Every structure is written in structure tokens, then in C-alpha cells.
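Morning run. Coffee first, then this:
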Amino acid sequence: MSEAVFDLANRRATIALARRLAPLLAASDLVVLSGDLGAGKTFFARALCRALGVPPHIEITSPTFTLVHELEGRLPILHADAYRLNHPSEVVSLGLREARGAGALLIVEWGEPYIEVLGGEAMVVRFEHGTAHLPALGSRRATLTGAGQRGEEIVLRVQA
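And here it is:
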């Protein structure tokens, strides 16, 4: 399993990682964001959506209560939050897999337990608060891993 680790000293570094990842993503890709509350998932999702061409006048917020936000960049994007979901059937009822099949890029916060229900082949980004290497307030570490062939491919390309 491929893995890429990025120490993110500040918000600019997080935005830079999103900009590095965005050109590698294609229609029907799945990006799963995981980490504790406040670890930077929604901030990263916002930066990634901007890097994918979502205009600045479009507000990009956490979909915690609405569950799914539809956005338009260089490709259709569905930004979802599975935090309040308890069963794979609830994920299925959101229609995310079908939207992915129709070409939407899925960005799913808290989606790790549902990768297979969402069609597999994902790139997972795990965020951690400051580490021993980066103890400063606001620092993060992002670990990218691939689930399936397409996820592995994205991780290898982001490392290059």
C-alpha cells in the first residue's frame, strides 16, 4: 500500500497540498478525509474545491447537517459528510455512488467506513493535529493512502 506523508506547518501548506492534488483528480474519483474534529478536513476540502475551480463567490462549508453539497468546478463535485451516518444503507440513500458513476468527484469527510459502499478505489487523507516534528499550534500532518488501484495511482503521482 502506497503512503505519502506531508507535514503541514500552516494553512498555506495545506492549501499547497490541495493544489498539488487537484490536477491529479478526475471524474468519478473518491477522496475520503479522516481525522479528529478540528483536524482540518473541511479546510482541506475547501482548498481542494477552490483548486478544482469552484469560484470564490461560492461558499464552501461543512456539509455536517445537509450531508451533501453539490459544487461545480472543472468537474462536478459532491462534498459529503458521513459523521452523523450510522449504517451503510444511509450512505446508499444519499445517491453518492450513482453520482460518482455519472462522473462526479466525491469528497467525503468521515467516509472511511464507507469506502466499499461508495465504490472503492479511493484516496484517503488522514489529518492529525501537530506532531513531534511540528508541535506548533495550527500544524497538521496529512497521510495519503490509496485504497484500490486508482487510489494507489493518485498517491504515487502526488509523491512524484
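Residues 3-159 form a domain with the Rossmann fold fold (CATH 3.40.50.300). Good start to the day.
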